[in-house]
Amino acid sequence: MSRAVAIVGSGPSGCYLAQALLKAAPELRVDLIDRLPVPYGLVRYGVAADHQGTKGIVRQFERLFERQGAGFVGNVAVGEDVSLAALREAYDAVVLAAGLSGDRALGIPGEDLEGVHRAGRLTRALYEHPDAEPLPELGPRVVIMGNGNVAIDILRLLAKTPAELAGSDLGAGPSAWLAGSAIEEIDIVGRSPAAEAKFDAVMVKELAKLEGVTIRVIGAGASDDPEATKKIAALEMLDGHATGARRITFRFGLTPVELLGEGGRVGEARFRDSAGATVALCCSAFLTAIGFEAEGLLLREELIGSAADREAGVIEPGLYATGWFRRGPRGTIPDNRADAQLLAARILADLDARGDAPEKPGRSAFPDWRSIVDYDGWKRIDAAETAAAPQDRCRAKIPTRETMLALALHREELPQ
Amino acid sequence: MNIILLYGTETGNAEMLAEDIMVELEGEHTVECRSLSDFDPGEFDAGRLHMIVCSTYGDGELPASAQPFAEALKASAPSLSGIHFAIFGLGDSEYEETFNFGSKGLAELLAAYGAAQIGERVTHDASGSDMAEDLAFPWAARIVALAEEKIGEIA
User: Fold this and answer.
1) Under a CB-based contact definition with an 8 Å cutoff, are residues B10 and B65 in contact?
2) How far apart are CA A126 and CA A122, in angstroms?
3) Quick check: B127 contacting A, CB < 8 Å?
4) pLDDT tens digits, one per residue of A226-257
5) Domain that holds residue A19
6) Which of B7, B9, B10, B11 is best to mutate for the A interface (most A CBs within 10 A)?
């Protein structure tokens, strides 16, 4: 018996799930379906361009397709090219691993002013996601609102000198945008005290390598909690780091109240501190990095809200969810690996319980799907990107769907 | 030679490398591959070579699958005299201050209970240009040759 499993989303959660399923049951037919023509989701478009070590997990996922027999079905949007119902009809199990790609809104007046940008949209532009908007003009004074690892990623990339980006996969366009930026000052503002900041201490320590900045940390506070103490110690170490002209200031315990502007463009951000006093920061751009929520064609709230066993990742018999799509926007890549391994065990047990029920057709139920990018198609894109990499980059990403598809769908003439 | 490959992993990279080393060695040797989280400190065997592949996570900490092992080791505090191990580390020099602290800490812990390390601890850098297996396969071959001199007769 070879059951068919469809995983919607080929980011780390989907890939780890496929890996765990195929390790335990190599005979399964597992397809990873992605709305993009390229796999790996967050690893390609969310992990920072200068964190190539983190992207090393792709080598595991390549093996998934090259040796473990998983199929890549790229350029298929569930909810548009195929309905979730049709997918469930064709596969013995369907798993939603689509992540959370929408930016949470701050919900304060002035958020729609020009010059206010959300982290996910900005990083998609930086990392050349095919649906990205053009990179915006930020001006000389940037405020980053948020204290998670994404906020630190943005801070680090905005602060780096061009030489510090060597070895990354930051594209030519974004690299030129950063090199030409007029940023003189970056304030990074947390609503909570530093002790409750969501970023990891190691992300703060990494900032001590920046070569063109002067860093000030205001009000890091103190804590009895060992994890919080590490963060505070890392911030204190960073305070006074002076290697260049670009000024970076960490501020904590400031609740955003409103954004003010002239002529429709943001010029000032107002906060309230813990004593109730108003704090105003001048800014030419205000970036929000305050977390993610569902976006797109899958109706997550509905699905997860009515889940039979949300904790186990079971929405209904035969329909599952894993990763951020299940849990919400908390936890790192290894957390999602652990999540996927637990769900894999559950799915295998459920499939086993089906006994002799006839197996479903899987991918072959959709003979008329057009313009699908399979794994070989992706490898053609991958090869082109690697070959085009300039000397100080490890890859030159292809930024448009059109070019991706032209490369992926090109078929070599078959010998007679 | 009788070899057990033990991995401490967080993202799965160390697990994959340990499995690759097993495939590399199992033609000529008896090899088993297991997560450190499934290995009890009472299972150390003087007739066996213990090859460990261990990553580093967070702020220089042991990866998730090595932590319960380290706790169990500290709790039982066994004498590991006569036990031979070798260790390969995975790390990321982007975090230079704690680069490869996981494998370093684990090697020190085993040595503290009297286990003898064979060969050098070789480390891979995820931000470098080498493939992990290009460092690990020659390391494994050297370790096995050294171990054959030391525990070959017992095994």
Assistant:
1) yes
2) 6
3) yes
4) 999 999 999 999 999 999 999 999 999 999 99
5) 4-100+294-409
6) B11
